[in-house]
Amino acid sequence: MTVLNPFSEVTHINNTALAKSPEQGKVSLVGAGPGDPDLLTVKALGVIETADIILYDRLVSDAIRSLFPAHCQSIYVGKVKNRHSLSQEKITALILEKAQQGLHVCRLKGGDSFVFGRGSEEMLRLKNSGIEVELVPGITAASGCTSYAGIPLTHRGLSQGCTFITGHAEHELKLNWQALATLDHTLVFYMGLSQTTLIQRELCRAGLDVSTPMAFIENGCSSQQRVVISTLAEMAVIPSTHNIKSPALIVVGKTVNLAEQLQWFGSLSNDQARQFSA
User: Fold this and answer.
1) Buried-most residue among 24, 34, 146, 259 (CB within 10 A)?
2) Domains of the chain, CATH where assigned
3) Chain centre distance of CA 27
4) What's the DSSP call for residue 232?
5) Rounded mean pLDDT of the chain?
6) What's the whole-number mean pLDDT along residues 245-259?
7) Is 209 a catalytic residue?
8) Would you give the DSSP letter of residue 33?
9) In this predicted model, what pLDDT tens digit does every residue of 175-206 receive, in sequence order?
10) How far apart are CA 56 and CA 32, in angstroms?
């Protein structure tokens, strides 16, 4: 297995060992799930084992990367806030280039490609270029990480539904906060750690009770999982007081109160912030 420097330029790499026939290759957009390799689908594992090349994101865990076959080249194309190994445009161009060389490309993303994964953007470009594309769904973080934290997304009498929200925006996070505050849903914010103060302020302004339970789930579905439970009133101070790091989900809603009763993954230890780690 060849793993390239995460922050090196990879758009002009040519690997003669991977040379194929001039026939078009294909691309598999694969969701790797939230990190636990046991949560990979059978189809996802099959693509990983048979692909000619794997282009993987930052949220693909070490445990899943250890499953990459030795014969397969792998290229890191992940993004960290304000530090991207490649722009999205260059990533898509690289996928297209490798497929046009006749290779079977596994584009491996954490979670699910179609849930805040920009998989649909890549798929549109590839299909418009005449490349065969298949989609392999993965367990999205909101489902996997809340399940491992013992927090149901829905529960009769507590939550009639769930809403997934990205906390990342190109310029400004513009949401219908009034609707979010009145939905009676469990709210799950992806990539929202840097927006914690804004999320708290806007939900409170929209009328959501400050006593509403909320949780941060850090490194969900892994042996490093950490869950900190508090209320909307304390939400903005939790990241600094408990040193919450990305990747972390923010969950807001009444079902968070069930976490201690439904805990099953690892052991619990309570403190004033009701923090527990797997």
Assistant:
1) 34
2) 2-136 (3.40.1010.10), 141-277 (3.30.950.10)
3) 20
4) G
5) 88
6) 96
7) no
8) B
9) 999 999 999 999 999 999 999 999 999 999 99
10) 9
- Written as six digits, the tokens of 89 are 């445009």
With b for 16 or more beta-carbon neighbours within 10 A and e for fewer, the 18-42 pattern comes to beeeeeebbbbbbbbbbbbbebbbe
| Residue 34 backbone phi and psi in degrees, to 5 | -85, 5
Q: Is the dihedral of CA 205, 208, 213, 216 positive or negative?
A: negative
Angstrom distance (rounded) from CA 62 to CA 132: 29
| Secondary structure of residue 219 in the 3-state scheme | coil
Closest to 25 in 3D by CA, of 50, 56, 4: 50
* 57 annotated active-site: yes
Q: What pLDDT score does 16 carry?
A: 39
**How wide is the angle at C-alpha 57 spanned by C-alphas 259 and 34, nearest 5°?**
20
- The catalytic position among 20, 26, 43, 79 is 79
| Cβ burial 79-88 (10 Å sphere, 16+ → b, else e) | beeeeebbee
pLDDT digits (tens, 9 = 90+) for 111-158: 999 999 999 999 999 999 999 999 999 999 999 999 999 999 999 999
3-state SS, one letter per residue, for 53-115: EEEECCCCCHHHHCCCCCCCEEEECCEECCEECCCHHHHHHHHHHHHHCCCEEEEEECECCCC
pTM over 0.90: no
Q: Where is 84: in which H helix or E strand?
A: strand 83-84
Instruction: List the catalytic residue out of 52, 57, 109, 112.
Output: 57
Q: Is the dihedral of CA 129, 130, 132, 138 positive or negative?
A: positive
- The DSSP bridge partners found for residue 83 are 80
Sign of CA dihedral 249, 252, 256, 257: positive
